[in-house]
Amino acid sequence: MSAPVMVGAADMAGTRRMLRVVDVLGEMFVDLAAGRTRSPARTVVEHGDRRVLLVSPAVWEQRAVGSVKVTTLTPDNPVRGLPLIHGIVALTDLETGQITALLDGAELTAVRTGAVAALATRWCTPDDADDLGVIGAGVQARALFRAVTAVRPIRTVRVHSRTRAGAEKFADWIRDTAPRPVRVTVCGTAREAVTDAAIICTATSTDDATPVVEADWVTPGAHVNVIGGTHPDAVELAPALLADAVTVVEDRTAALDGAGEIRAALADGLIKAEDLHELGSLVSGAVDVAGRTTVLRTVGMAIEDTAAAVALFEERRTAERGSGGPTAVAPTEEGVPDGHA
Hints:
- This protein is α/β, with parallel strands linked by helices.
- It has ten helices and 15 strands.
- It has helices spanning 15-33, 77-80, 105-124, 139-151, 164-177, 190-194, 252-258, 260-267, 279-283, 302-323, and strands at 5-7, 37-38, 43-47, 51-60, 65-73, 85-93, 99-104, 131-135, 156-160, 183-186, 199-202, 223-226, 246-249, 276-278, 294-297.
- The strands form two sheets. Strands 10-9-8-11-12-15-13-14 form an eight-stranded parallel beta sheet. Strands 1, 2, 3, 4, 5, 6 and 7 form a seven-stranded mixed beta sheet that branches.
- Helix 3 (105-124) packs across helix 10.
- The longest helix is centred in the C-terminal third of the chain and has 22 residues, at 302-323.
- It is globular, with a radius of gyration of 19 Å.
- The chain starts with a strand and ends in an 18-residue tail after the last helix.
């Protein structure tokens, strides 16, 4: 039996790989909406002081692949100089039962979460949308920037974060890594960052029910990717916006369980469960968003790891065939929002 291919952070970088992940996620979400995948709830084992072990399995039968992600969250790690999150994803060939690849779990989570937002952005915004507002400045905010700029020609970015220093550091990173020249502005308030933006991304670690972004700050016709929050009742975007927006979710049941904005909007009578549109329906063309304000609210699902893993594994194998040998495995960056672990 051949050893599994090791896929590290270096093997997940670059626009080509990101676009490949976005494309494969699109295929997967169509199958998910049609009931052709299996993505059970993850197993969560709490131990010690806020330490958590998570196990997340999923099967994508149309591609004959499955995956299991093992993730640890250790709050004391940053003071040790270690990442908050460690993880690994095992990709499995369902025909033979072989473990075909082992992937850096923290980096894969960041990549696939950004790619889900990019997929919605591709379907919900004009091709020339070029103005981005980002709330948050951590690893996932970076992943969102990489993903959105892969599908849209972003030229202006406004950033707001809890601390000015964090926002400035993120802005410098954008200037250094952007695929095209961009004008980056660090904003003193969240309102300043999102007003008039065509695309808005929120990626905070809020645990509060007080919105980070108010509904009337969002320009009609804008698209909002909401991916942060640390528990099922945390709110980044004011639920009032969902009353008039086209609200897109990965899976309706998962969103009802884990998306604070949706739970609050339902409780307040602003929307009904049937108002939620699954990403698979959006990708298949069954949802008309023309001229509408749109919101993607993600909670993270194990099947997304499966789809992203198979896309990156295929890219890795293609690269190896072209170069005649394996490439190096690089270390990963730390941390993703808890809801997406």
